[in-house]
């Protein structure tokens, strides 16, 4: 029986390993983590992450061939294949602060693997890492190896999106495996390929060299984010000219060379990866003497920052240039629907912008806890362009944010509503009831274009949508 161990029971490690266990009953999969609370949650009825369909998959395999444990060394030493799916955030201090990936967790995982291994291992990079990381990992593993162990490093980046993780894992557009072009490297690639071949058609499993696989992941995220910044840049021009961004995106996306997906204008993209991975790409370009290429990708993040501040400025200016003392209801705090994840959510920047203008905000999100929201708002803002000057939020301003457990409660008595996550339930709210209970004039700022502006205008609202005529 092939044994798999995965280091890191997070948004990637948990769902990915659960699906491997489901699709490969002959393989034993153990997911380990340094966080005991995370592992206890994976072993409980309340999984640590919200992801549609995940509960079902875990229930089917947990205790059969899927296990969650904190006994890291035991399971690493017993495994044939070790996936490393630890976090790789942006460095906030020292060389490359604000851009480079912080590989502290990765390096300590690699050192631990070298220490405890007694047999040959295939080490798989599942985390998103800078191109050439495999070379560094190889150095750590081989220089700490006096037991004659053969370590093969593979790059197998993950392309799942949160909120659709299970669907994406069941039917991936492609699985990418990069390895060394040596006989041992090719053997390792074939073994990992045979794991995925249990449910992924072979022609969708791409094999490449290590560096192509590592770089393809950063490039894919940069291309996806670039589409959003492109449509968001056009949304600003739509607002200035009377064009409708939905009509423009539809017309542009009909060109089969461009395609219709990922062209929804929004308050800005969020999530733990787009910004981090583009910054990582920018840093690699700079280190390789390619400042023009670095500047090109920087612009994708700058437009995203601009879109968020543009949203706040438009809100404040349309509410007679002041929101001081006014109640603003915030519907949605997660970075997208169907997840409780708030990492880099545009809602943080928008809420901080409103609090900075002395608004009182009342937040409702169906999946994000009050604790999480308060932690996010109290956190120092990390400015990637000027990492030395962290911008603290004043504790008194944060006190002006409250969290409600119902959209109607949050909007009661409000002067304005902003929709910051595209939760389906926001499309179905009783907006007549909401209007009744709001101050007049009642404003709606739809940061996700989920409501029909014409219908709401008929009720009496003043509606601002992204990239749509007033
Ligand atoms: P996460 O923070 O949710 O999970 C990482 C986990 O690793 C944490 O639980 C942490 O405690 C654990 N960990 C850290 N060091 C460890 C160690 N030495 N041993 C064992 N466990 C350790 O992160 P995530 O969202 O799952 O992302 C993981 C990686 O996958 C990142 O590189 C990210 O860029 C990439 N990725 C994420 C997504 C996504 O949708 N979140 C998608 C594709 C790729
Ligand atoms: C993204 C990629 O889609 C995944 O392929 C990748 O594996 C992952 O990053 C990663 O490496 O972490 P994720 O961030 O989970 O996945 O979610 P997306 O669906 O890509 O959405 C990201 C952000 O862009 C969200 O805030 C979303 O609301 C926003 N978005 C998305 C738009 O504003 N407009 C769109 O048209 C699409």
TrEMBL record:
Matches recorded under SUPFAM superfamilies: 6-phosphogluconate dehydrogenase C-terminal domain-like, NAD(P)-binding Rossmann-fold domains, UDP-glucose/GDP-mannose dehydrogenase C-terminal domain
Record-linked Pfam families: UDPG_MGDP_dh, UDPG_MGDP_dh_C, UDPG_MGDP_dh_N
A GO CC term assigned to this protein in UniProt: nucleus
Molecular functions (GO terms): NAD binding; UDP-glucose 6-dehydrogenase activity
Enzyme class: oxidoreductase
Keywords: NAD, Oxidoreductase
Binding residues for NAD(+): 8-13, 33, 38, 86-90, 127-128, 162, 273-276, 343
Record's catalysed reaction(s): UDP-alpha-D-glucose + 2 NAD(+) + H2O = UDP-alpha-D-glucuronate + 2 NADH + 3 H(+)
E.C. no: 1.1.1.22
Annotated active site: 273
Biological pathway: Nucleotide-sugar biosynthesis; UDP-alpha-D-glucuronate biosynthesis; UDP-alpha-D-glucuronate from UDP-alpha-D-glucose: step 1/1
Entry annotated with the keyword Oxidoreductase: yes
Domain UDP-glucose/GDP-mannose dehydrogenase C-terminal, first and last residues per copy: 329-453
GO BP terms: glycosaminoglycan biosynthetic process; UDP-glucuronate biosynthetic process
Gene3D superfamilies per the UniProt record, alphabetical: Cytochrome c1, transmembrane anchor, C-terminal (1.20.5.100), NAD(P)-binding Rossmann-like Domain (3.40.50.720)
Primary role: Involved in the biosynthesis of UDP-glucuronic acid (UDP-GlcA), providing nucleotide sugars for cell-wall polymers.
Family assignment from sequence similarity: Belongs to the UDP-glucose/GDP-mannose dehydrogenase family.
Annotated protein name in UniProt: UDP-glucose 6-dehydrogenase
């Amino acid at each position: 029986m092939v044994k798999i161990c995965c280091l890191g029971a997070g948004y990637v490690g948990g769902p990915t390993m659960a699906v491997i266990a489901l699709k490969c009953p002959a393989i034993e999969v153990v997911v380990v983590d340094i966080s005991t609370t995370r592992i206890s949650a994976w072993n409980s009825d309340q999984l640590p992450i919200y992801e549609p369909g995940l509960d079902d998959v875990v229930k089917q395999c947990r205790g059969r061939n899927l296990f969650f444990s904190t006994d890291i060394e035991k399971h690493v030493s017993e495994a044939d294949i070790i996936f490393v799916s630890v976090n790789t955030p942006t460095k906030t201090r020292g060389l490359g602060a604000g851009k480079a990936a912080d590989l502290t967790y990765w390096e300590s995982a690699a050192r631990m693997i070298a220490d405890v291994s007694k047999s040959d291992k295939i080490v798989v990079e599942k985390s998103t890492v800078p191109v050439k990381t495999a070379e560094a990992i190889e150095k750590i593993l081989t220089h700490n190896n006096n037991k004659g162990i053969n370590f093969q490093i593979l790059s197998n980046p993950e392309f799942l999106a949160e909120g659709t993780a299970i669907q994406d894992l069941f039917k991936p557009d492609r699985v990418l495996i990069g390895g060394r072009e040596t006989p041992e490297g090719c053997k390792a690639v074939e073994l990992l390929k045979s794991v995925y071949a249990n449910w992924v058609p072979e022609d969708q499993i791409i094999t490449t060299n290590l560096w192509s696989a590592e770089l393809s992941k950063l490039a894919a995220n940069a291309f996806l984010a670039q589409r959003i910044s492109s449509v968001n840049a056009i949304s600003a021009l739509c607002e200035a000219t009377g064009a409708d961004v939905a009509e423009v995106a539809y017309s542009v996306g009909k060109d089969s060379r461009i395609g219709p997906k990922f062209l929804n204008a929004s308050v800005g993209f969020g999530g733990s990866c787009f910004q981090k991975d583009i910054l990582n790409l920018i840093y690699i370009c700079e280190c390789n003497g390619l400042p023009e290429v670095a500047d090109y990708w920087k612009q994708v993040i700058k437009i995203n920052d601009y879109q968020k501040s543009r949203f706040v400025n438009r809100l404040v200016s349309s509410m007679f240039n002041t929101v001081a003392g006014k109640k603003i209801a915030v519907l949605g705090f997660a970075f997208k629907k169907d997840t409780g994840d708030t990492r880099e959510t545009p809602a943080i920047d928008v809420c901080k912008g409103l609090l900075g203008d002395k608004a009182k905000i009342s937040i409702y999100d169906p999946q994000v806890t009050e604790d999480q929201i308060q932690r996010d708002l109290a956190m120092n803002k990390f400015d990637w362009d000027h990492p030395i000057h962290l911008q603290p939020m004043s504790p008194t301003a944060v006190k002006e944010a409250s969290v409600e457990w119902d959209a109607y409660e949050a909007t009661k008595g409000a002067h304005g509503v902003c929709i910051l996550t595209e939760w389906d339930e926001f499309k179905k709210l009783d907006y007549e009831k909401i209007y009744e209970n709001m101050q007049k004039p009642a404003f709606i700022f739809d940061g996700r274009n989920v409501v029909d502006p014409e219908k709401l205008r008929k009720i009496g609202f003043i509606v601002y949508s992204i990239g749509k005529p007033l």
